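Incident log, structure service

09:12 report received: a user says their structure output differs between two submissions of the same chain.
09:20 pulled the input from the user's history:
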Amino acid sequence: MSTNESSLSDYSTVLAPGTHWSLVVRKGIQMTLTDLEGGANVGMLFYNPQFMSEKYNAPDTLKCQHTFKLTRGHCLYSDMGRVFASITDDTFGWHETVCGNSHAHHIESRWGERNYQTHRNKWLQNGFDAFLVELGKYRLNKQDLAANLNLFSAVSADNEGNLELSRQSQARDSVTLRFEMDTLVLMHSCPHPMNTAESYPRKPVRIKLEKADPVSSDDYCLNFCDENRRGFQNNALYHLGMEP
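09:34 re-ran on a clean worker, output below:
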């Protein structure tokens, strides 16, 4: 993480290349992620900090909204049918949640082996191990992993069904997540598992946290589809009696 820039009403920092971070984001806060140089990838997972067995569910997120990609209007669901966050703004237009993480063998086969003990901050981290480090802070382990988001990365399939990384974001592309419940957020800035760049991508991402506008009856994400309205209803039941 880089030097923070914060005030009483918001918080801003930079997720450095090939690093990881986690934090609890409160209901009603929005997180805007900005690719500062182009070609970034942000792996992300969500958990309920009150009931850690409740986690992000990629299959339900896709099938209930009848989509293969994620962009503005889509909600990010837990395995309990609740909405962790809504995508309220997006300049890139395609974020994937089917290809998972890079592992050590992906990194070594493409860019060589460079470990922290030998290379210090110039080592080459992978997404799987980055998530494990963050999970350990909350007494979780690899059995608690789920299929993750890969923000700023688009994939496509050929006629035989083979997937490839087809497009990545440009400099200053951004995506905003509005959190609909308290959420433990795990993230890393390691390469997408299908990235075939000549050198290990070192792409920083700015993160800004601030209070979101209240959800109104004509909210775009709420009304994107019937399933989202049911998801918000599940959230309302979950929060019943919790708010003043």
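09:41 both user submissions now match this output. Likely a transient worker issue. Closing.
09:42 reviewer note: The first helix runs from residue 58 to 63. The radius of gyration is 18 Å.
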